[in-house]
Structures are given as C-alpha cells and as structure tokens.
C-alpha cells in the first residue's frame, strides 16, 4: 500500500513538472520609486540613446525585440509593410523612432546611411502627425505626439546638416535625398524673404550657444530653426556686410507613406520674422523658431568690438564703416526705432536690449530696429549732423513720396553721448549753438561756400519732423565732470583727432582770426573734452527746449541706494541725467551701462507699447501682422 502511494506521488510530481512548463509563472508587483518610473516613461531615442517604452512594446508585438539591433532595416521593412497593411497610426511612430535611432548609430561611421535613415525618420514622423489615411489624428495628450514632433525636428536638422556636409548648398532648387528603402525628390522654396535677403548658406541654430545675451527667444512647433547667412548686400540697402536672418526649414511631404508612385516633398525655408506658421492640409501648424541665435551671429562680428575702441582712439580708421544699419530690409508700415550708442561703444552694446525687444511679438511686428554707428572720438555735434542726414537719405530712398506714416512715428533711443546726439535731432538751434562758440556770423566768415555749408550742417539744425519719441539712458545733458578728471584727461590725450579735421579747423582759425571764442580754440577736439559741464555747446543745449510734439523719457542709473539728489551712475550724476518735462523717469540700480539692466529694458518695452497706444487706429490697422 505504501509503495503504491509513493509511486502515485512520483507520477503526480512528474506530471506537474511536465505540464507546468506551459503554465504562467505568476504575477507580482515590484515597488519602483515614482521618479524612476517617470524617467523610464520619458526615455526615448533622443534623450537616452535607447528606445521609448512605446517602440519597445511595438517591437515585442511583432517579435522583433531580439533582432532589430542586428538588422534594423529588416525591422523597418516588417513594420513598414504592417503599417501599410493595417493602417495603424502607432506603427508610424515606432518607425520614426526606430529610423532615427538607426541614424544616430550610423552617423559617425556611415553618414550616407545615416542620411537615409534620418530622412526616413522625418518622413514617418510627418505622416504619423498628418496622414489622414491612418484613422483618427493623434491625441495631443499622448506622449508620442510631442515626441513625434521632436523626432521630426531632430531628424530634419540632421538631414540638412548632412546634405550640406556632402557639398550641396541650400541655394539649390532641388535634391534627391535617399531613404532606407529608396529615395525622395525634394524641391526647395523660400517664403517670406524680401528681395534683399539673398541667402548664401544656412547654419543650424541648435548647434550654437549665444554668449553675451542672457535670454533666448524661441517658439515651439515644427521645423528646424536656422541662421540664414546672406550675401553681401548693396550699400544702399543699409544692411550689414554679412547679414543674417532668422529662418525655419519645414519639410512638407506629398502623397502618403505607402504611396507606390515614390516619395517627394518640398523643403520650405521661412523668414520667421515675417511668418510664424505653416498650413498642412487644413491645419495651421506653428513653426519652431529661434530669433536670438541669428542675432548673436550678426553681433559676434569681431569688427564691432574693434570699432568701439578704434572709433575712439583712431577715428579716421573706422569712419567709413559708420552710418545707419538695419537688421532686416526696410519694411513700410513698421515704425523705425533708432538705437544710438555712446562713448567707447558700438552697436554691440544694444545686444541685450535688442534681443529682449525683438523677443516680444507685438513689438517686432510693429517696429523695425536700426543702429547708428559712428566713431566716438568726434565732438558729438558732428555725428548728430551725420545722423540727421542719414535719416533724411533713408526717407528719400525708401519713401520719397512720404506715404509711409510709420516713418513719421520714429523713436530714438540714446545711451550716454548717444542721448546727446538724439536730443540734437529734436531741437531747433536757431543761432544759439553757433553763437555759443563764435563771435562772427557764418555769412561773414572767410570760407568757401562748401565750408560754410558744412558749418551750418553741424551747428544749425531743426527738429526732425519724423521723430516723435526719444528715450534717454544715462545721458549727460549737463555734462560729466569725469571728462575733466585725471582719467578723462588722460584718455582725451590718447585720442588721435583725425588729421583732416585738425587741418580744416586750424585753416579756418588762421583765415578767420577772432571768429571763435578763446576757450573754444583751446579745447581739444575730442568727444571726451566736449562732454565737460563747461563746454559752451553743452551749456546752450540745456537752454534749447525739446520740440513740443516730441515725447521724451529718461532712464537713470544709480550705483548705490541714495536719495535722488545724490544719485549717480558713476559717470553721470542725477543732476545731469534728469530732464524736466520728461513723460517718465526710471531709476535703476545700475552703473553707467544702465541699458543692460533688466528693469531698464522692461521700461523701454513699456514705453514702446505706450507709443503704439498713442497711434491713430487707422495707422495701427495698416501695420502688417504675422
């Protein structure tokens, strides 16, 4: 009996082992920290160099989890055929991530294969997002939706980079770009660029960090933000020698992912200062943009920094580089904002403020920003006359009939000595400025008609009717005692006054004895010497009112928390920078470079918005929108 029971137990155990091989081992829960769980859910080809949980699950579903690493194109073939047979949209997502993953693995050793895989990834991501033949559109709350956008953007960026590395240029009209299972014909189109914006090459914005500008202004959507580098423009365009523009590349595809007729599409390059979205089917899709990096490229020109110092110490070497500069071609309907730098400076000084102002859509859509660059060695009355002439020339070049009402709402922003230059554009001098330095009327001078005209151009001026608002920042309206200090005197002695200017002045003095005041003849012909509080031009400009139709504001730096009467930015005391009658006055805790301070920039933003609110409704309606 006992033997029979043991025998039975052995048989039962044997059966349990045999039959148990086909049974499920059981289910249990393993504790996982929430942070770890979230990281695993967020992992993907772009963030961890591995695949997302969604694509891993897809590979397991089709029994490809073991083979895809060794034969990724074989896995792509299986999934591609299944997607076209089943019409299941999630498979397109898996194809996009898998193709991108393959491109990242092969890019260093096989760039041609990587180009085909990246191009395929962008194509799969596009059709996952937009192909109506795959049922309901993707849910924007599904994490695959945003990841598909990122896969499209990243893969297209790599396509553009690899195409250019192969020696092809974005200036061409079309390409044949490989796919993992064929090739694709891509036409090139440019949209929104003005005729003067002739693109020579493009650079990926994502491959550069901007140093020297704190804030980065981007918008998020689809496309690849680019630095579009232009060819050298004609001088009459007022663009820099090497202009750059904010652009976005967007690849719009034809047909469907399963189209047997072959793959084709259009790579559109958009000027994203003008265009912010693209239409796909009937949907309006926001473009991914970056307007800061192209600005950083433009301002990274080492010549700008060189100009700041040489423009003070050796003005004659950089005089021909001075003048008015535009960041984009002149655009009727947009109000000009002219930024005028100060002593030992260049347009580079406006980088921070300019970036923050252009970063506000309502400002960049209604304003166009211009720089005035000049050698800062000259007494400020001379660059003021040059700026007046330059603005009149721009008007005659681009709006000779004076039909552009926006031009007549111009705003000037002047820092330090630049503020004095700006003020001389909104004052009527009469005889006051010339009489402050001379004993004889211009008509009684022994000088050629050309010399007399040049004198009148500098010392006789009227408020320019197209300027309606001025923002003065750290401006020494009553001069700065620093100009008479040991440091100011030493720097002034280092300045080499242009030889032609010296020759002209001394020739004038020799032929017109007694015409100029004695203290004027003794004063050095430098900007620093002419910023002294006892400079007769500084003194008389205080007495000349700003034109009543001009609204003006002041921004003052304060290096320490002191009462208003003791405020100073370290160079200009409050008593000199304060202006009676200003529409507003803002004191910020900053030194003389107050225009860098975030609160000063916010104040300028506020003033520019206020300026828009003062415009007639009809004028506002004429301003072009996005």
Query: Regarding CATH, which class of the largest domain?
Result: Alpha Beta
CATH topology of the largest domain: Rossmann fold
Report the count of strand segments: 17
Strand content range: 15-25%
Treating each run of at least 4 consecutive H or I residues as one helix, how many helices?
24
Main beta sheet: 7 strands, mixed
How many individual domains? 3
Shape: elongated
Ends distance: 96 Å
Report what the structure shows.
The chain is an alpha/beta fold and 626 residues long. It has three domains: 44-160, no CATH class; 168-294, no CATH class; 302-619, Alpha/Beta hydrolase fold, catalytic domain (Rossmann fold, 3-Layer(aba) Sandwich), CATH 3.40.50.1820. It is 41% helix and 16% strand. It is built from 24 helices and 17 strands. The strands form four sheets. The chain has a seven-stranded mixed sheet, sandwiched between helices.
What characteristics describe this protein?
626 residues; alpha/beta; seven-stranded mixed sheet; 24 helices
């Amino acid at each position: 009996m006992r033997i029979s029971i043991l025998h039975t137990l052995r048989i039962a155990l044997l059966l349990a082992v045999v039959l148990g091989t086909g049974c499920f081992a059981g289910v249990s829960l393993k504790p996982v920290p929430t942070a770890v769980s979230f990281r695993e859910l967020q992992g993907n080809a772009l963030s961890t160099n591995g695949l997302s949980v969604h694509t891993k699950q897809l590979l397991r579903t089709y029994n490809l989890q073991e083979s895809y690493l060794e034969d990724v194109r074989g896995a792509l073939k299986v999934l591609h055929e299944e997607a076209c047979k089943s019409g299941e949209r999630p498979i397109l997502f898996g194809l996009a991530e898998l193709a991108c993953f393959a491109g990242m693995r092969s890019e260093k050793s096989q760039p041609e294969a990587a180009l085909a895989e990246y191009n395929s990834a962008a194509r799969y991501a596009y059709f996952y997002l937009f192909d109506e033949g795959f049922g309901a559109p993707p849910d924007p709350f599904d994490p695959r939706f945003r990841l598909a956008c990122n896969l499209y953007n990243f893969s297209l960026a790599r396509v553009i980079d690899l195409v250019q590395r192969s020696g092809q240029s974005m200036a061409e009209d079309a390409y044949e770009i490989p796919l993992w299972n064929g090739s694709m014909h891509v036409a090139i189109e440019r949209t929104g660029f003005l005729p003067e914006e002739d693109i020579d090459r493009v650079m990926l914005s994502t491959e550069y960090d901007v140093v020297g500008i704190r804030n980065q202004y981007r918008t998020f959507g689809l496309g690849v933000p680019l630095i579009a580098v232009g060819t050298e423009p004609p001088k009459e365009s007022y663009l820099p020698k090497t202009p750059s523009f904010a652009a976005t590349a967007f690849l719009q595809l034809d047909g469907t992912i399963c189209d047997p007729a072959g793959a084709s599409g259009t790579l559109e390059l958009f000027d994203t200062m003008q265009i912010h979205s693209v239409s796909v089917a009937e949907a309006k899709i926001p473009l991914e943009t970056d307007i800061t990096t192209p600005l950083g490229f433009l301002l990274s020109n080492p010549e700008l920094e060189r100009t700041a110092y040489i423009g003070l110490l050796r003005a004659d070497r950089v005089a021909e580089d001075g003048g008015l500069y535009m960041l984009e071609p002149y655009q009727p309907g947009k109000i000009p904002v002219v930024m005028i730098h100060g002593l030992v400076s260049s347009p580079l000084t406006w980088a921070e403020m300019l970036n923050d102002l252009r970063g506000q859509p309502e400002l960049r859509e209604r304003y166009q920003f211009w720089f005035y660059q000049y050698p800062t060695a000259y007494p400020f009355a001379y660059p003021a006359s040059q700026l007046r002439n330059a603005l009149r020339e721009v008007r005659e070049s681009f709006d000779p009939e004076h039909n552009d009402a926006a031009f007549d709402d111009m705003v000037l922003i002047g820092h330090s000595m630049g503020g004095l230059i700006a003020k001389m554009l909104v004052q009527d001098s009469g005889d006051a400025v010339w009489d402050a330095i001379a004993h004889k009327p211009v008509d009684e001078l022994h000088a050629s008609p050309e010399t007399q005209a040049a004198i009148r151009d500098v010392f006789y001026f009227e408020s320019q009717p197209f300027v309606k608002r001025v923002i003065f920042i750290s401006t020494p309206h009553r001069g700065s005692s620093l100009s008479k200090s040991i440091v100011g005197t030493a720097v002034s002695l280092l300045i080499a006054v242009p030889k032609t200017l010296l020759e002209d002045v001394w020739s004038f003095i020799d032929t017109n004895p007694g015409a100029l005041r004695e203290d004027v003849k003794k004063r050095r012909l430098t900007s620093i010497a002419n910023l002294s509080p006892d400079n007769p031009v500084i003194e008389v400009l205080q007495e000349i009112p700003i034109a009543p139709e001009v609204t003006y504001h002041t921004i003052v730096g304060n290096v320490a928390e002191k009462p208003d009467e003791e405020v100073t930015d370290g160079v200009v005391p409050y008593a000199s920078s304060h202006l009676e009658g200003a529409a507003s006055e803002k004191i910020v805790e900053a030194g003389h470079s107050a225009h860098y301070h975030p609160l000063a920039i916010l104040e300028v933003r506020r003033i520019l918005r206020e300026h828009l609110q003062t415009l007639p409704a009809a004028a506002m309606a004429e301003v072009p929108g996005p």
